Amino acid sequence: MLSYLITLLSVLLDKNLDPLLDKSFISSAGKYNKNIEELFQYPVIMFIRVCLVAPIAEENLIRGFILDSLMNSYTTIISLVVSTILFAILHFNFVQTLSAMICGFILGLIYIKTDFLFCCILTHSLYNII
Questions:
Q1: What is the C-alpha to C-alpha distance for residues 54 and 14, in angstroms, rounded to an integer?
Q2: How far apart are CA 23 and CA 94, in angstroms?
Q3: What integer pLDDT is reported at residue 100 of this predicted model?
Q4: Which pLDDT value is given to residue 97?
Q5: Cβ–Cβ contacts within 10 Å for residue 87, how many?
Q6: Residue 79 near residue 70, CB atoms below 8 Å
Q7: Which residues of 23-61 are buried (b: 16+ CB within 10 A; e: fewer)?
Q8: Residue of 84, 78, 95 lying closest to 62 (CA atoms)
Q9: pTM flag (> 0.90)
Q10: Among 28, 30, 32, 124, who pairs with 55 as Cys (CB 3.0-4.6 Å)?
């Protein structure tokens, strides 16, 4: 099930939505593409940074700390929406914002449903690998 979800996200977001946003946010897309090219100059470092460190750090911060904390004071929906928006903002790029919001929402649902942070880290890592 997880592999289907990750593949679906990759196809819908990276292959369809992001190219549309590239055309709308030309400056942001240029900076994003330049960053990606720089990462590919050092593939091992890129893999460690993008597929291991970032998912672990982002999931611990957004789901493990922020979503958990919000759920102690607010409804599940409010907590999920706020953590989703913060996850999108964390990516600092207009091209990735909508994709990050969708992924953040799904990762939040996974965390709420499983209450197991590792599921979010694994999903996020696999998505980044694809």
A1: 18
A2: 11
A3: 86
A4: 77
A5: 25
A6: yes
A7: eebeebbeebeeeeeeeeeeeeeeeeeebeebbbebbee
A8: 84
A9: no
A10: 124
Q: What does the buried/exposed string (b/e) look like for 93-119 if buried means 16 or more CB atoms within 10 Å of the residue's CB?
A: bbbbbebbbbbbbbbbebbeeeeebeb
pLDDT at 94: 67
| DSSP tag of 1 | -
- Helices assigned H by DSSP within 1-130: 2-9, 18-24, 26-40, 43-46, 54-59, 68-73, 76-90, 94-114, 117-129
Distance CA 48, CA 19 (A): 25
| Three-point CA angle 100, 106, 107, nearest 5° | 85
pLDDT in tens, the chain (130 residues): 556 666 666 666 666 666 655 566 556 656 666 766 777 788 898 899 989 999 999 999 999 999 999 999 999 999 999 999 999 999 877 667 778 888 899 999 999 999 999 999 999 998 888 7
